[in-house]
Amino acid sequence: MTIRVLVVDDQELVRAGFSALLRNDGIEVVAEGGNGRQAVELAQRHRPDVVLMDVRMPVMDGIEATRTILGNWPAADGEPPRIMMLTTFDLDDYVFAALRAGAAGFLLKDTRPAELLDAVRVIARGEALLSPGITRKLIAEFARQPAPAARPTGGQLRELTEREVDVLRLVGTGRSNQEIAAELFVSEATVKTHLGRVMAKLHLSSRAQAVVVAYESGLVRAGSQGG
User: Does the keyword Amino-acid biosynthesis apply (predicted)?
Assistant: First the structure.
């Protein structure tokens, strides 16, 4: 099935480059936008599978656009697009803000073309993705970041079963579904089921958000990432 992508970046040359790369690989670019406000309008109009979203843009930045798109998506329209944040900056507050806003992934703009194409396909499948290196830096440095005003309450976490808590904790350490399955002696399908229930109970829209929650809830602390 053809993947439909919306490309949003305030630099026309960057947009053109990303769009050409995607089209050359058989991915449909449904539209291009130059700021967050256009991203919101174009996402509503074209209903893409994936949005490649720059973080720092005029009029409305990518984080606010992500929050707006995901927060206002009509249930009647099915699943909202998966949003991949793109930036020239390695780990800063924008990474955490983007994940809290519901972004499904985060890549640096200097990512190699093949990796970007693979990332789009991973995101389109409904999986979360952080560029190699960012995941471990995210986990290692999360404790240094200020916690947001709103976080899951103890009551919310108590809605999880013991096994669901185990899965959330292991997701927070950066383990894949396959690694979690091996550690818990269950199938990958079972891990996916538990993770789906965790995300539904905690109202999360991406695996990346689950990493954030695992830290903010105290289930995981810096230095406990997987090998």
Answer: no
pLDDT, tens digit, for every residue of 175-195? 878 889 999 999 989 998 998
Write down the pTM of the prediction.
0.67
* pLDDT 10s digits, 58-75: 899 999 999 899 888 887
Q: The domain 151-216: what is its CATH number?
A: 1.10.10.10
Report the pLDDT value the prediction gives residue 139, as an integer from 0 to 100: 53
pLDDT digits (tens, 9 = 90+) for 154-173: 556 788 999 999 999 888 87
- Per-residue HEC secondary structure of 7-72 comes to EECCCHHHHHHHHHHHHHCCCEEEEEECCHHHHHHHHHHHCCCEEEEECCCCCCCHHHHHHHHHHC
> Class of 4-132 per CATH?
alpha beta
Domain boundaries, the chain: 4-132, 151-216
